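Hey, I'm writing a tutorial for new members on how sequence and structure tokens pair up, and I'd like a real worked example in the thread rather than a made-up one. If someone can provide the structure for the chain below, I'll link this post from the tutorial.
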Amino acid sequence: MDKLIKENTNWLLFQKQTAEKYFMTLEKRVFEHQKEKAENRYTNLIKRHPEYIKQIPLQYIASYLGITQRHLSRIRAKTDF
């Protein structure tokens, strides 16, 4: 990447924009994780990525949501999806 940046400064701009995009995505996830209840985080996950629920083991989904598997089971029992 350093070689590309030395050859053409447009690569520096591309690198900066890409880093900013991923930083904003990470920041949004962290703030969402802090302010929203687990039920809302689970609902948002289902809305945005319904395929994850079918493909990813529940232990990893619970970890991603920052809750225990037991809590995730309770949320799933309440949710009609």
